[in-house]
Amino acid sequence: MAVAAAPTDRLYYPLYAACIDLGVPFCTQVGHTGPLRPSETGRPIPYIDQVALDFPELTIVCGHIGYPWTTEMIAVADKHAGVYIDTSAYTARRYPPELVAYLRGRGRHKVLFGSNYPMITPSRALEHLAELDLDEETTELFLSGNARRVFRLGDQS
Protein backbone atom coordinates (compact mmCIF):
# COMPACT_ATOMS: atom_id res chain seq x y z
CA MET A 1 0.00 0.00 0.00
CA ALA A 2 1.35 3.40 -0.95
CA VAL A 3 1.85 6.07 1.69
CA ALA A 4 -0.01 9.26 0.76
CA ALA A 5 2.32 11.62 2.65
CA ALA A 6 4.41 14.15 0.76
CA PRO A 7 8.21 13.64 0.72
CA THR A 8 8.48 16.71 3.00
CA ASP A 9 6.31 15.08 5.68
CA ARG A 10 8.35 14.77 8.89
CA LEU A 11 7.29 11.12 8.96
CA TYR A 12 10.10 10.45 6.46
CA TYR A 13 12.85 12.48 8.12
CA PRO A 14 14.16 9.57 10.27
CA LEU A 15 14.41 7.51 7.07
CA TYR A 16 16.43 10.24 5.35
CA ALA A 17 18.74 10.48 8.37
CA ALA A 18 19.18 6.69 8.38
CA CYS A 19 20.09 6.72 4.67
CA ILE A 20 22.79 9.29 5.42
CA ASP A 21 24.08 7.27 8.39
CA LEU A 22 24.19 4.09 6.31
CA GLY A 23 25.67 5.79 3.26
CA VAL A 24 22.88 4.63 0.96
CA PRO A 25 20.85 6.69 -1.52
CA PHE A 26 17.18 7.37 -0.99
CA CYS A 27 15.29 6.28 -4.12
CA THR A 28 11.85 7.66 -4.84
CA GLN A 29 9.36 8.10 -7.64
CA VAL A 30 9.10 11.64 -8.95
CA GLY A 31 6.41 12.67 -11.41
CA HIS A 32 2.79 11.76 -11.87
CA THR A 33 1.37 8.63 -10.27
CA GLY A 34 0.01 5.65 -12.15
CA PRO A 35 -2.83 4.99 -9.67
CA LEU A 36 -5.86 7.25 -9.74
CA ARG A 37 -4.75 9.56 -6.97
CA PRO A 38 -3.31 13.08 -6.89
CA SER A 39 0.14 13.50 -8.43
CA GLU A 40 1.04 16.79 -6.74
CA THR A 41 3.41 15.20 -4.19
CA GLY A 42 5.46 13.87 -7.12
CA ARG A 43 6.58 17.36 -8.12
CA PRO A 44 10.32 18.02 -7.82
CA ILE A 45 9.62 21.59 -6.66
CA PRO A 46 8.86 22.08 -3.80
CA TYR A 47 9.16 18.51 -2.48
CA ILE A 48 12.52 17.07 -3.59
CA ASP A 49 14.04 20.54 -3.49
CA GLN A 50 13.02 21.00 0.17
CA VAL A 51 14.22 17.53 1.23
CA ALA A 52 17.59 18.22 -0.42
CA LEU A 53 17.79 21.56 1.41
CA ASP A 54 16.92 19.93 4.75
CA PHE A 55 19.32 17.01 4.17
CA PRO A 56 22.22 18.28 2.04
CA GLU A 57 24.25 15.11 2.74
CA LEU A 58 21.46 12.86 1.43
CA THR A 59 21.82 11.29 -2.00
CA ILE A 60 18.41 11.22 -3.70
CA VAL A 61 17.73 9.18 -6.85
CA CYS A 62 14.53 10.42 -8.47
CA GLY A 63 12.87 7.78 -10.61
CA HIS A 64 10.59 8.11 -13.61
CA ILE A 65 12.27 11.21 -15.05
CA GLY A 66 10.00 13.52 -13.05
CA TYR A 67 7.54 13.64 -15.95
CA PRO A 68 5.52 15.82 -16.57
CA TRP A 69 7.79 18.11 -14.54
CA THR A 70 11.03 17.04 -16.21
CA THR A 71 12.31 20.62 -16.52
CA GLU A 72 11.75 21.09 -12.77
CA MET A 73 13.52 17.79 -12.11
CA ILE A 74 16.53 18.92 -14.13
CA ALA A 75 16.62 22.24 -12.24
CA VAL A 76 16.59 20.43 -8.89
CA ALA A 77 19.33 18.01 -10.03
CA ASP A 78 21.43 20.99 -11.14
CA LYS A 79 20.83 22.83 -7.87
CA HIS A 80 21.72 19.97 -5.52
CA ALA A 81 24.92 17.92 -5.84
CA GLY A 82 23.23 14.87 -4.30
CA VAL A 83 20.12 14.76 -6.50
CA TYR A 84 20.04 12.43 -9.52
CA ILE A 85 17.48 11.40 -12.14
CA ASP A 86 16.79 7.85 -13.28
CA THR A 87 14.94 6.84 -16.41
CA SER A 88 12.90 3.95 -15.00
CA ALA A 89 9.45 3.46 -16.53
CA TYR A 90 10.53 4.97 -19.86
CA THR A 91 11.99 3.49 -23.01
CA ALA A 92 14.77 5.48 -24.67
CA ARG A 93 12.44 6.58 -27.44
CA ARG A 94 10.07 8.20 -24.90
CA TYR A 95 12.63 10.31 -23.04
CA PRO A 96 11.52 13.95 -23.10
CA PRO A 97 13.73 16.12 -25.36
CA GLU A 98 14.86 18.27 -22.43
CA LEU A 99 16.15 15.15 -20.62
CA VAL A 100 18.04 13.98 -23.71
CA ALA A 101 19.66 17.43 -24.06
CA TYR A 102 20.57 17.38 -20.35
CA LEU A 103 22.05 13.88 -20.65
CA ARG A 104 24.14 14.91 -23.67
CA GLY A 105 25.46 17.99 -21.86
CA ARG A 106 25.79 19.26 -18.32
CA GLY A 107 23.74 16.38 -16.87
CA ARG A 108 25.92 13.54 -18.12
CA HIS A 109 26.94 12.74 -14.51
CA LYS A 110 23.41 13.15 -13.12
CA VAL A 111 21.25 10.70 -15.12
CA LEU A 112 21.09 6.95 -14.41
CA PHE A 113 19.58 4.28 -16.62
CA GLY A 114 16.55 2.48 -15.18
CA SER A 115 14.07 0.05 -16.71
CA ASN A 116 11.18 -0.53 -14.25
CA TYR A 117 11.45 -4.31 -14.59
CA PRO A 118 9.25 -6.35 -14.90
CA MET A 119 6.91 -3.79 -16.54
CA ILE A 120 9.68 -2.72 -18.93
CA THR A 121 12.60 -5.10 -19.41
CA PRO A 122 16.10 -3.67 -19.66
CA SER A 123 16.38 -4.77 -23.29
CA ARG A 124 13.11 -3.05 -24.18
CA ALA A 125 14.11 0.08 -22.26
CA LEU A 126 17.32 0.22 -24.30
CA GLU A 127 15.71 -0.20 -27.71
CA HIS A 128 16.47 2.89 -29.78
CA LEU A 129 19.26 4.01 -27.42
CA ALA A 130 21.43 4.75 -30.48
CA GLU A 131 18.85 7.33 -31.59
CA LEU A 132 19.84 9.48 -28.59
CA ASP A 133 23.21 10.04 -30.29
CA LEU A 134 25.22 9.85 -27.05
CA ASP A 135 28.99 9.75 -27.25
CA GLU A 136 30.80 6.69 -25.89
CA GLU A 137 31.73 8.25 -22.53
CA THR A 138 28.21 9.54 -21.90
CA THR A 139 26.73 6.15 -22.81
CA GLU A 140 29.04 4.44 -20.29
CA LEU A 141 28.18 6.95 -17.56
CA PHE A 142 24.46 6.64 -18.27
CA LEU A 143 24.35 2.83 -18.44
CA SER A 144 26.70 2.02 -15.56
CA GLY A 145 29.22 4.61 -14.40
CA ASN A 146 26.80 6.97 -12.70
CA ALA A 147 25.01 4.12 -10.91
CA ARG A 148 28.31 2.60 -9.78
CA ARG A 149 29.34 5.96 -8.33
CA VAL A 150 25.99 6.88 -6.75
CA PHE A 151 25.38 3.43 -5.25
CA ARG A 152 29.09 2.92 -4.41
CA LEU A 153 29.37 -0.31 -6.40
CA GLY A 154 32.70 -1.87 -7.29
CA ASP A 155 35.23 -0.04 -9.44
CA GLN A 156 34.16 3.59 -9.72
CA SER A 157 37.04 4.85 -11.84
Structural descriptors:
157 residues, alpha/beta, TIM Barrel, 4-stranded parallel beta sheet
Give a written overview of the molecule.
- This protein has helices at residues 13-22, 44-54, 70-79, 97-104, 122-126, 136-150, and strands spanning 26-29, 60-63, 83-86, 111-112.
- With 157 residues, the protein is of the alpha/beta class.
- It has a single domain (16-150), classed as TIM Barrel (Alpha-Beta Barrel), CATH 3.20.20.140.
- A four-stranded parallel sheet has the order 1-2-3-4.
- The protein is globular, with a radius of gyration of 15 Å.
- The model has no long low-confidence stretch (mean pLDDT 95).
Q: What's the total count of β strands?
A: 4
The Cα radius of gyration reads 15 Å
CATH topology: TIM Barrel
The residue-averaged pLDDT reads: 95
Uncertain residue ranges: none
